[in-house]
Input
Amino acid sequence: MTQEHIDGLLAKAAALARAVRIPVSRSICPQVQINRRARTRFGCCLRRDGRYTVELSAQLAEEGGERAVLQVLAHEVLHTCPGCSNHGPRWRSYAQRMNAAYGLDIRRADSFAALGVEDSRPVRYWVVCGQCGRRIPRMKRSPLVDHPERYRCACGGALRVERQGENGKM
Output
């Protein structure tokens, strides 16, 4: 997707929000910044000197479809509204309004699969349910990886951790 196309989608996201009376800032930089280092987030809204800059991950810009990019840009545009720097009740109500009006699926966090992008992050740990067999990938150490006995799977089963070997084997 070209830079011009992405910038046009940013303008479209802001216009769609304004059309349903969401108070999007008029101080959004019209050029989306492509972030080539982002590996775990798809977009970001930064405020500097009263102006907002929206970033988009290069992977989403290159692999994602137009709808996925529009959805992430709309998510970030909502962060420019007063009282919406986080994902609090006001931000969620605006996201629901956009979703209802345009059939989008703006939410607090998206997944690679939901946006149609391949997750190329290296899996270092697999958290496995002893009851249902569900396998949950983890890229880095966390309390869940360090102490799986403190957690349960959604089915109620006990969890255990398998560490990925250097050669890709367990």
